[in-house]
């Protein structure tokens, strides 16, 4: 009888624990990540929120200053100094930049914000690009923005020494179940970051260190931050263009890709017709694009020349992969710059523009692509155009080896920053050569 009563008491306590408010809190904390509205800790008798010592600084379990700890005199600090991060250590942000969850934290203004769109449920072949933002940040670890090691011979400068605030804004918590909701979440997130006030910069000598980049094109006449987005499959560009349209109206696009991504929307539902191969056609139908956009690196197989003719109605001019062999890098850059002119332009780079021998981790690989060096050369040549944003997409690290795609993508983002901040392309390296000898 005693054993039976013990079992009954244990069962009753178990039922009460399941029905208690604390259990409900635990359930919601582990609910689907797209729903950020979680049940807070509450006191059931007063319905007041109970402070959480892990998140509330006023409830800190231990405060060094309050107990008289002098960190400078402790063994580590007195012997080795600050606890700085190494290239392979520390929290994961792009190039060890300052990190904020910018959608809920507006405490740090930025000129260029880096945001992740972990989304891959609109792909036609291999998924996995939802892990792209992580892979790109991981590939950037050796860049060490805070250590002053951003200067390169190719650029002759560092993007972190241009007097601008570059901030890693984290990832947007996108629904992995509802594509329509996810696209709306992306647009809302981009709207939020674009609406933040851009900081004004000057050096200690009073000289301006950062010039206005977007004010002259903005419909409201204000300077707006610029966003570099880490994808994610290429569909993420549609909500980005919708957001940019609210600030700038129709814009031009420079599109690095093996594929056109302008195929006519098809399918029996609205959501089926929007995917990573049709989003530019949808954008054109919505009036988001000018008629002066350009592809770079096209080499995919098509149904026929009709695909190219339709592509021109979307507003694009085509530069193929082979054009770089027939005309050279300088002529490719020249034609791209002529096409864009002085209009506001958005740059979108699918990592599959690079040959899969050099960047295998992507969803729809196409052989015969440009080398990473050729892509980087072209990006330098585009410096000084009126960029209002940029992205890199379709990095799917499950298909990578030795992280080479993530490292390549991170280095391209590093080039994006310099390209967006400098006024003109860098001069060729001279060294043992003389100016004017370059090809």
TrEMBL record:
It comes from the Eukaryota. Residues 39-48 have a biased composition (Polar residues). InterPro entries: Ureohydrolase (IPR006035), Ureohydrolase_dom_sf (IPR023696), Ureohydrolase_Mn_BS (IPR020855). One of its GO terms (molecular function) is metal ion binding. Pfam families: Arginase (PF00491). The keyword Metal-binding applies. Residues 1-24 form the signal peptide. Residues 29-57 are annotated as: Disordered. GO terms for biological process: putrescine biosynthetic process from arginine, via agmatine. Keywords: Hydrolase, Metal-binding, Signal. Belongs to the arginase family. Agmatinase subfamily. This is Arginase/deacetylase. It comes from Dendrothele bispora (strain CBS 962.96). The lineage of its organism: Eukaryota, Fungi, Dikarya, Basidiomycota, Agaricomycotina.
């Amino acid at each position: 009888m005693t054993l039976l009563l013990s079992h009954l008491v244990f069962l009753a306590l178990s039922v009460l624990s399941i029905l208690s408010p604390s259990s409900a809190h635990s359930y919601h904390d582990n609910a689907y990540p797209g729903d950020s509205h979680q049940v807070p800790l509450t006191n059931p008798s007063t319905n007041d929120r109970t402070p959480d010592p892990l998140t509330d600084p006023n409830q800190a379990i231990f405060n060094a200053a309050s107990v008289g700890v002098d960190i400078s005199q402790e063994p580590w600090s007195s012997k080795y100094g600050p606890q700085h991060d190494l290239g392979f250590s520390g929290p994961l942000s792009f190039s060890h930049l300052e990190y904020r969850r910018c959608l809920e934290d507006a405490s740090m203004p930025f000129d260029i914000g880096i945001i992740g769109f972990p989304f891959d449920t609109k792909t036609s072949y291999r998924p996995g690009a939802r892990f792209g933002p992580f892979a790109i940040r991981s590939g950037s670890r050796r860049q060490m923005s805070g250590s002053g090691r951003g200067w390169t011979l190719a650029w002759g400068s560092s993007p972190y020494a241009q007097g601008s605030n570059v901030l890693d804004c984290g990832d947007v918590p996108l629904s992995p179940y509802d594509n329509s909701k996810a696209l709306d979440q992306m647009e809302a997130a981009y709207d939020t970051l674009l609406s933040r006030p851009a900081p004004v910069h000057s050096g200690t000598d009073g000289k301006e260190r950062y010039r206005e980049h977007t004010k002259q094109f903005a419909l409201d006449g204000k300077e707006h931050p610029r966003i570099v987005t880490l994808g994610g499959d290429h569909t993420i560009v549609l909500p980005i263009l919708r957001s940019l349209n609210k600030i700038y109206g129709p814009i031009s696009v420079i599109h690095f890709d093996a594929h056109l991504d302008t195929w006519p929307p098809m399918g029996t539902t609205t959501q089926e017709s929007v995917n990573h191969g049709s989003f530019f056609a949808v954008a054109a139908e919505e009036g988001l694009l000018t008629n002066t956009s350009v592809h770079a690196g096209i080499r995919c197989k098509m149904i026929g020349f009709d695909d190219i003719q339709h592509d021109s109605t979307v507003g694009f001019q085509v530069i193929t992969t082979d054009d770089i062999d027939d005309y050279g890098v300088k002529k490719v850059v020249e034609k791209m710059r002529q096409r864009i002119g002085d209009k506001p332009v958005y740059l979108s780079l699918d990592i599959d523009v690079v040959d899969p021998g050099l960047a295998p981790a992507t969803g729809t690989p196409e052989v015969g692509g440009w080398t990473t060096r050729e892509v980087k050369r072209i990006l330098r040549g585009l410096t000084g155009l009126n960029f209002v944003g940029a992205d890199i997409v379709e990095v799917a690290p499950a298909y990578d080896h030795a992280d080479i795609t993530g490292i390549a993508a991170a280095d391209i983002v590093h080039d994006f920053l310099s390209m967006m901040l400098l006024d003109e392309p860098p001069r060729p390296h001279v060294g043992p050569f003389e100016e004017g000898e370059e090809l």
